[in-house]
Write a structure and sequence with these properties.
Blueprint: H1 2-7, H2 13-33, H3 39-55, H4 60-72, H5 75-94, H6 96-106, H7 113-148, H8 152-169, H9 174-183, H10 187-193, H11 195-214, H12 221-238, H13 247-257, H14 262-279, H15 285-294, H16 303-309, H17 318-336, H18 339-348, H19 354-371, H20 375-392, H21 397-408, H22 419-428, H23 432-435, H24 440-455, H25 473-477, H26 486-489
Helix pairs in contact: 2-3, 2-18, 3-17, 4-17, 5-9, 5-14, 5-15, 5-17, 6-7, 6-12, 7-8, 7-11, 7-12, 7-16, 7-22, 8-11, 9-20, 9-21, 10-21, 11-24, 13-14, 17-20, 18-20, 19-20, 19-21, 19-24, 20-21
Length: 490
Amino acid sequence: MKTREKAVKEVKFRHGVLALGALAVVMFGCVVGLGSEPQIPLVIGCAIAGGIALYLGRTWEDVLDAMLKGINDSMEAVLILMCIGMLVGVWIQSGTVPTMIYYGLMVVTPELFLPIAFVVTLVVGVVLGSWGAAGTIGIAFLGIAAALNVPLGMAAGAIVAGAYVSEIISPLVDGPNLAAAIADCGVFALCKRFLVLCLVTCAGCTVVYLVIGMNLNLAGSADVSGQVASLLTALDANYNIGPVTLIPLAVMIVCIALKVPAIPSFLVAIAFGMLEACTLQGSDLSTVVEVANLGVVSSTGFAELDALLSNGGIQEMMSTISIVVLVMAFGGIMQHTHLMDALVDPIVSRLRRFAQLVTATVFSGALFNVLLPDQYPAITLSTQMYSKEFRRRGVENEVWGNIVNSSAGITSVLVPWNTCAVYMVTVLGVPCLAYAPYAFFCYLYPLVIIVAGMFFSRKLGWISRPEAVEPDAVAVREGCPDGVTAAQNA
């Protein structure tokens, strides 16, 4: 054992940069240049990082163990993602999601289109996730916007912004679950901790959309009324719509309020959805079970409705799960072979104040979304980069998990070559640079987090001890206790 330890070379900053830079180059080339999905670039990134670790004297058993440790950290998130897939499919079949869409469309008016599109997409996104919301209710709203003569860039911006609120506050969405898994905290705790800041930002965005909408000269409201009426009629004809179908949603909210763990909460909500699908919608049990696995394939004959409601199922989540597993394998190599420490320590040692750490974390998340054009690597690597420093300063896991997710989780959709933006452009048909200026939440919320970290971190309970605000990095490196200067120690 002694001989092997001596054979391991010192891990230096350049080694960490090489591993991360190589992944960035491969990801960018494959995702942007070749139009591929992120999985294969991540496999190549794991091979490169593993190769660097082997060069530094690690054994293959070390590298494999590091990957398995990283993957093991994501297992709860993987199980939750499967539960989310089941829940979405079952809630569509039970009428829960159709009822939410129905009530949302009932309040659309020309003058209030932008704020309503933002808020309704937000609500649907809490259940279906950002991509699910944009690909369903978002498409419907974009058709309404075209009939209203609302600039499509504005409309798509409001839709994208509303959809991505779910990446911060919804325990049913993969991004928060991944952030919670890596930060080692409950997903409900993560989503609740910054809820007030998120809702304040949403309220501000809604006011801005309202002001913009009230000053637009819109026409074609009669056509819009007809289009909305047709969609409402189709929903009413194919589902038993009513408040009782929202019981599964109410059950989920109660579980969150009672702090029931995530997986049992999902299973209870799924069970209520299955019951309502059988009793209220007339589905047989075999169909409901199949929907939980494969998702809903809507075949009402009404194209807009079928696009809205073909979603859900465990299998729908498998692509996301494969990305999460590969990202965590790469992160495991970086973390457990100390490549991440070598990369991060020289940077973090210069962050004297807590506000600087918050700002660096937010900007790093956005930078990762530019360099590693996918949301999951951005969340994973940002979390792993700064976790040690946040913990050293005594910051609670759900606090710094939220700080990471505030940028890494939502700025991806603003980068034209990121997979999230590519998806939005594909489903909405609006260029990223056309909708990005109006996706207010996606860049205002990270700024709110930075401002809160600068001026209100103590009042918000983000930090609890004086030395957490301004640690002496030199003292720490020289062996003094966390945040205690040499003078204080003396």
